Amino acid sequence: MREQKRKNMFPLLLLVYLQSSPIHPLSSSLYTSYTLEQTCGQDGSKQSLHLNSQAAVFTFNSTNRRKLDCHLELHLHSKALGFSVFIETLKIERSSGCSRDFLQFGRDRFVITTHLSEKYCETIEHSADITNENGALVGYDFKDISFPRREYIESKDLEMDIWLELEPAHNNQIKEVKLVVAPFKKSCSEEDEEYYKMCPGTRRCFKRQHFCAGIVKCAVLTADEINRFCVKKAGGFLYLPVIIILIVVLIITTTLIGFGIKIFLSHLNDDDI
């Protein structure tokens, strides 16, 4: 009877282990995600973020009860790089001259603002993938707002500023903003072609992985480029989705723990004898 109870303990202990093992949210190595509700400073105080050479995605999706006065200053680590800002989504209050809600970009020298973009307050819907009959990506649908209209380029400075001002929402309106910021090389050499791709009609070169992940949408990779740069690593090993890796690790860990528990119960049985 005691032996049977101990054998029944194994699946129970295994179930408890699986339920108590937390699965943490995954963060991409290609970009850093920022929620503007948390990233923006209090009362419009400037927040400095050092992107170095990593892309960033900024999102806002809230019904703001109080006025949001957000000022971000982004930094790069090399003069060879520039900023590309892509407005993926913008759903804020529209007004004449964007006098209430607005999004704006610029740069400064010390405390003096030396350049300002126009203010954005029109509705910009999230872009959509265009695929062929085989499900392969062949382009992007930018809805009523073209790609050039969605993009802001800063190539003259190592720093750039983003301002987002939102008046208190009316009637529980949910305001949405999604900005994708990707650093680019201002020019490419033949040696860069293995890791960078140039946007058509420009000299701006982005990491090929950013095209693979849909972070950069100025062009679409060919099937050959996808096979070369999105599927395989330099060593020839296939990229495995992170979730598959986690599942494999979980199975291996569970198996090892199971063997450990089985050995432990076996020793208990030996002691009883």
Summarize the structure.
The protein has 273 residues and is of the alpha+beta class. The protein has 6 helices and 14 strands.
Structural account:
- The protein is an alpha+beta fold and 273 residues long.
- It contains six helices and 14 strands.
- The strands form four sheets. It has a five-stranded mixed β-sheet with strand order 1-3-12-5-10.
- A hairpin with a 5-residue loop joins strand 8 and strand 9.
- Helix 1 runs antiparallel to helix 6.
- The longest helix has 31 residues, at 242-272.
- The chain is globular, with a radius of gyration of 25 Å.
Characteristics:
single chain; about 270 residues; alpha+beta; 5-stranded mixed sheet; 6 helices; 14 strands; about 25% helix; globular
